[in-house]
Automatic annotation (TrEMBL):
Protein's UniProt keywords contain Ligase: no
Organism encoding this protein: Candidatus Gallacutalibacter pullicola
Protein name from the UniProt record: Class I SAM-dependent methyltransferase
Domain named Methyltransferase: residues: 48-145
Keyword Glycosyltransferase: no
Lineage of source species: Bacteria, Bacillati, Bacillota, Clostridia, Eubacteriales
Transmembrane segments: 145-166
Length: 280
């Protein structure tokens, strides 16, 4: 198996994931993903493997609802940080929290009711290696089990740069940045430039909705629905302040639901979530 980009893993081991879902567009991503999980998941105490689950925001929340959740992540820091969330969910425990590569998970075949693969696919840049991770999830799932796969869209970096242009940075004026996003739009390959001021994530692969669906179906999954997790709501100014007002918060979420399955605008959502089923 080919290794994950060192810059990516170093970022996670330096705690980059802490608090990501608790501010700005992360608030929308977390809320909408939870809604979708509740829409599709079987009832507790179903067994869930959260593979590449960061430091466990989804794992601890699902465990508090009565699910048997196993958290796996490649970053030692993320697994260590997951213990911090225990205080937010008194009386709740994870079934496991282990350092693990998504392409080789030490659990028996057909042992999970659902698998969350909501991180690894955009950090595994070789297609055959991504298929290994998807097929490993297929192996782990019971017949009829559900896979939730997250992806970043090829438009995400450029749209973000446009939304903050002139207020937080001037990346659109930098040739190395523009060449980077041209490559993303061409084939989904995200390669951070060696020059310029961009400091985003390291080597990654960004999926279109159709590419994500094709890779899942190539690995044996069917009945895939690809949701635009944050729709266009992420471009609203000052999401943190809006989120504190229940009326404003619901207004934003309503727009996300409206655009959720619209294939003609799915690329506007920075994140996608595919829900697939293992053949029964």
């Amino acid at each position: 198996m080919k290794s994950i980009d060192k810059a990516v893993l170093d970022g996670y081991n330096n705690g980059a994931e802490r608090g990501r879902l608790r501010t700005d567009l992360g608030l929308i991503e977390f809320e909408r993903t939870k809604e979708l999980l509740m829409q599709y998941l079987p009832k507790p105490p179903a067994v869930i493997y959260d593979i590449g689950g960061g430091y466990g925001e989804y794992s601890w929340w699902l465990a508090s609802l009565g699910y048997a959740v196993h958290l796996f992540d490649l970053s030692e820091t993320n697994i260590s940080m997951s213990r911090e969330l225990a205080d937010e969910y008194p009386g709740t425990n994870l079934a496991a929290a282990e350092i693990c590569d998504a392409r080789a998970v030490s659990r028996p075949s057909e042992s999970a009711d659902a698998v969350l693969l909501m991180g690894p696919l955009y950090h595994i840049v070789e297609k055959e290696e991504r298929l290994l991770a998807i097929r490993e999830s297929f192996r782990l799932l019971k017949r009829g089990g559900l896979l939730f796969s997250a992806a970043i869209t090829p438009y995400a970096t450029l749209l973000w740069a446009i939304s903050v242009f002139g207020t937080k940075n001037r990346l659109l004026e930098e040739e190395p940045f523009i060449k980077m996003v041209e490559r993303e739009l061409s084939d989904g390959e995200h390669i951070r430039p060696e020059s310029g001021s961009y400091r985003g994530i390291g080597r990654s692969h960004f999926h279109s909705a159709s590419e994500l669906k094709a890779e899942l179906e190539l690995s044996g999954f069917y009945d895939t629905k690809v949701h635009g997790v944050v729709g266009g709501a992420w471009i609203a100014p000052d999401i943190d302040t809006l989120w504190k007002d229940p009326v404003s918060r619901e207004a934003l979420m309503k727009t996300v639901r409206l655009l959720d399955l619209r294939e003609d605008i799915s690329g506007m959502s920075t994140h996608l979530l595919a829900v697939s089923r293992k053949t029964g």
